[in-house]
Amino acid sequence: MTQNPFSLLRGRGFTLAALAGALTLSGCATMTPTQQHAATGAAIGAAAGALLGAATNGSRGVGTGAVLGGAVGALGGYVWSRQMQEQKEAMERATVGTGVAVSQTPDNRLKLYIPSDVSFDVGRAQIRPNFARVLDQFASTLNANPVTSVYIVGHTDSTGTDAINNPLSVDRANSARNHLVARGVAAHRFQTEGRGSREPVADNGTAEGRAQNRRVEIFVAQAASPAAR
């Protein structure tokens, strides 16, 4: 007799809790409350998806299990759709040799990591030509998938004071947004933030480290909703 997958989920509730707890507690010390919430949702969604997939594979085929598992997994927050994958591949092609890193985050967002030698001159918020070309291609991919939202974060190194670095990081994020809006991406899709020098990724004691810390990070997210899927 075929076992009801939802009965299986209820019977293994402790498994969902354990998986969610293990995944979120491992990073909670460095996460913001928003990141913790997203991670918990993603963990629960992933665990539920895995259980549903396992429950259905034996009786209804691997394809059905994967679809049901993915649908439940998507309830965690963001969905990695075919359009998101196509956008990632398009940006990987567009940024070859530029130093821009394109990746999929653990919570199913597309991330563009733009280092300072591509994006902005030291102490400036004007977009450099190489960065403009990347953003032009990026705008095309955003317009092809209009249900997504875009979050842009500007960063600086520790040179100078917060009174200089904080507004500079905001200006850099806003410059990237304004460039994309000028190329047809709807303004309401954007959220920008500047974090100054508060989140270094390298040692500010060296020139190489400071160059890595001067950066812009762009995140694209597709909400896990029936409309988005």
Q: Can I get a quick summary?
A:
The protein is of the alpha+beta class and 229 residues long. It has 2 domains: 5-74, no CATH class; 82-221, OmpA-like domain (60s Ribosomal Protein L30, Chain: A, 2-Layer Sandwich), CATH 3.30.1330.60.
Tell me what the structure shows.
By secondary structure, this protein is of the alpha+beta class. The protein folds into 2 domains: 70 residues, no CATH class; 140 residues, 60s Ribosomal Protein L30, Chain: A, CATH 3.30.1330.60. 53% of the residues lie in helices and 13% in strands. It contains 9 helices and 5 strands. A 5-stranded mixed β-sheet has the order 1-2-5-3-4. A hairpin with a 5-residue loop joins strand 1 and strand 2. Helix 3 runs antiparallel to helix 4 and helix 7 packs across helix 8.
